[in-house]
Amino acid sequence: MRRDIFQAIADPTRRAIITLIALQAMTPNAIAEHFDTTRQAVSKHLRILTECELVNQQRQGREIYYSLEMKKMKEIDKWLEQFRKIWEDRFDNLDKLLARMQKK
Amino acid sequence: MRRDIFQAIADPTRRAIITLIALQAMTPNAIAEHFDTTRQAVSKHLRILTECELVNQQRQGREIYYSLEMKKMKEIDKWLEQFRKIWEDRFDNLDKLLARMQKK
DNA sequence: AATTTGAGAAACCGAATAGTTGCATATATA
DNA sequence: TATATATGCAACTATTCGGTTTCTCAAATT
What is the pTM of this model? Predict the structure, then answer.
């Protein structure tokens, strides 16, 4: 059972949940209302998100509020870092090329 | 058959391939040498990466050079954008909070 | 012309995935 | 206390995934 952020965000429903709870914590029931699946299915997604520490739980009576763990989201950003350097370099080169072309 | 960037980068081997060809184009055989799988398995990964337009092919005789399509990589970055705003905001708030605490 | 080499496609297999239904448990409410 | 509600867990199922082996095809080499 692989369990990392990349596998977590592979599922579109999970990405939607992430976006949903990014701004404010929500209960499984409230989340499920936004989707065309059962509450249990959402619960399963939340378990996966919890297992890779992408969400935090905060119990309040019998309700559990799930919120997004931004620290973990940054890990995706960190992985992208290596490519960002490359695509910025290429952009720079294109810039220089265009500058050289204008000189002529 | 879902086929989008997020599903593409979910597999660790595929992420490794992406990193591998980010700097220079490579043939399937050359790529396969870096992994503990068959060339055919790598070929399958390349097909998936091709299907979601994450890689470009450039034929040269009987060899095919695969390179990374940075434009597509930026789509991940674009998705992260919404969260980046949030985590920067939170960081700002933390900053202000710390400043306020120091005043007292 | 015959052989080797690089690559993709097809068929198959076991494991993982995402969903369902049904059940258990704890908290709130009547 | 009895009932309603919020949640999680287990068992089952169809589908997808990642890998293998076998094969075909086209380009290079002998």
Answer: 0.89
